[in-house]
Amino acid sequence: MLKVRTISGVKTARITKRYLPAFISFCVGFVCAGAKILGVPCSLCVCACAGAGRFAPVAFAGSLLYYLVSGTLSVGVPKLCAVLIVGALFPLLRRHRFFEPALLSAAACFVMLLINCAYTVGLGGGGYAVAFAMTDSVICACLVFMFASIADEFSVTHSLRISGASGVFLSVLFVMCICTLSSVPLPLNPGRIAGTVVLLHFARKYRALGGALIGVLTACGVVLSDPFLAGNTLIMASSGLICGAVAGLGNAAMYASFMISSLVSLTAVGINSDTFVMFWDLALGVMINIALPDELLSVSRSLLTTSKSTADLVGQTASARLDFASRTIHDIRKEIDLISVKIESRRRPKSISKRVESSLCSRCEMFELCFKKSASKTAVSMGVLEKLHKSYGTLNNEDVKTYLPACTKPAALMTAFDNCSDELDFERACNKSAASMRKFLSEQLITMEQLLCDMSARVGRIKEVDEHLSARVKELFEVSGCRGARVCVYKNEVGRRYAEAFVNGSFKSDILRLTLRLSNIMECDMELPSINVLGKVTRLIFTEKPELEASIAYFQASCKGGQYCGDTLETLTVTESERYVLLSDGMGTGERARLDSMFTVSLLKRLVTSGVSMGCSERLVNSALCVKGWDESFSTVDMLRLDLFSRSACFLKAGAAASYIYREGSIIRIGSSSLPAGILDRCEPEMTTQRINAGDMIILATDGVDESIITDNSELLERASLSGADKASRMIGEQAVKSFGGEITDDITLAVIMIGKA
Asked: Residue 590 CB: number of other CB atoms within 10 A?
């Protein structure tokens, strides 16, 4: 029995291998015969015949069947003639080893131009008809060239590279496939269904970027077939981005997020004749994707590759893709904001009196008399009772007898006013909560957008990747005992050299010796690396030494000699040339203020270390403080970023006291009027960038340090600038303590940064 099954399986595989390509060629020829571009029939059936190879007669049979079934044989005569000639010519070219993409494209273009123009002129067509015939021929010739190029590459590599020129060719062919399928006259849109299936597949493999990209390409194909469908189909880009972002949570989360985001976007666009068709297209595409066997999906995933070279991937695609994702999130946020505006404009809650009328009075036997025969008088009386209820919180019998003497149920009326008032308050609270959640979601999308912009900017700074040096540095790590290290050596936009390495496990080599040998390889002085450990992966960043160096010291004193200082200060060295000073003043004094400021600085430190910009870090901290749930859970944010290589200092302030740069007897004040983090959903910080030189002294302080101590005491600053950072911080700090007259009434924290030559 086992032997019979084996033989049967082999026979089935042989039959499938023999007849399946023929069946596919027949179907492709049939569908391409009905393809339309902007509503005008085109000659994509010629492309199908050219791509079918030895199955060109089968593709011709499919095209012929379409024209016979649709009753358009007279229109399809020139296309069928072109298919016959191309089908006979291409096997001849292949036999004589002339199967080159450019030659095939030129042959197809020549044949189609000759037949289309002769047919159009013979029928007496005007200049527009001739021009379209020529354009149609050129389009099909380009598609033949793209398909032949990809087929030629696939025959060698057995994979489809979706980067570089091959990626562009595949994108164009995908758009034309969607356009062709969308031209099929069915109740649903086959192009959108197929696009949904591919979108979900790419979202699972390439996350947000893959989903958004396929969504855009699908929209282009559908719009190329029918421009009327543009408004609805474009939402597939944002839906693909969202479902790709949550694809890591599992298939169920991906499918749910795709359908929910699509429904929200369809609602925002507005109901039209295509809305429900679009919904069923997406739903059917999701169901088909769910029904596809895992073996088929794994095979298709294995065929796709993006490998070319690190330099090409980094330089040509990464920054643009991140920027595209950022723009897509921006569009999604605008749609959510638009929905919020529409909801708020349409929401008009019923008044208490109207609610009482519908819930109680409409069921009363006196309803006809009160609200129809004496409608105006009753409405005025109900309005007066509503005002009295709002003023005093309840009604009494005298109020009802005075303004509604004919009411037969005064007790029930008073109870109804109380219940409807509670119902209205609850509805308003729910509406306010929903509006707050939409606003918070919009804020989070802004943060995501800014994060992607930060990543795009960082990748965009990589102007040149040196693959030769990367290989040599990788060998250095191998010799040093770090096997399997991933290394990249590159330059940024100002020509500064970096070496970034990722090592599995802990790093145990001699760092000093490794840095010296690395400097010899890169022919420049390199700093000792910045080392970050995340799980079992160690990241090392070596940077070229700057001309400046910074020395940092700080001074702290607690309010009234308390045990806890409400201020938290932390210095952070990403590299020797990129350093941060993080300062936060918790509201109030003592342990509670200390917890808020420590939370703020701790979160800022983790974000900055991971590469998030200062502005985005402050935005995330503000969101975290807003939802922390403590009363008065807010604190100031004072951040300083020193870039000693580019000689710049960037200050970010959110409710923080002023900072100062003392330079050759003059003071530069960097102030702020922004609010602390955690007070509102969004408090825009103020950012200032200053150029720094050797000999500068930078002072960061909380509001416990009187501003006059710095601005009106040039002699103190002069003596401090001639001392080291430690002594300078003590001198200024002790002067700040003295200004309180013996008892400190506010926490004091200040940091002094001395800039000198390296």
From this structure: 17
